[in-house]
Design goal:
- The protein is an alpha+beta fold.
- The protein has one domain.
- The protein contains 3 helices and 3 strands; from the N terminus they run ααβαββ.
- A 3-stranded antiparallel β-sheet has the order 1-3-2, covered by helices on one side.
- The radius of gyration is 12 Å and the shape is flat.
């Protein structure tokens, strides 16, 4: 899991969120990562509303991130 922590941290996802995602993954939950523009993120949020998601977090990715998609949204 430490590789996931490193990768998400490098993208600019806050450490407390990364640690929460790691705990959820260890508990057998899923993590879905979507990146794209505002319209794409809104569409993903709409599609996931009917799922049993426990949260939908939206993280802006800084321009100087190692890998630089526009935004990262995580749903678990």
């Amino acid at each position: 899991m430490s590789a996931l922590v490193g990768a998400l941290s490098a993208l600019g996802v806050p450490r407390d969120s990364v640690l929460r995602y790691e705990v959820d993954l260890r508990a057998g939950r899923f993590l879905l990562i979507v990146h794209g523009g505002d319209d794409e993120i809104a569409r993903a949020r709409e599609l996931l509303k009917s799922s049993a998601q426990s949260s939908f977090d939206h993280h802006e990715v800084p321009a100087n991130a190692v890998a630089s998609p526009d935004r990262v949204s995580c749903s678990k």
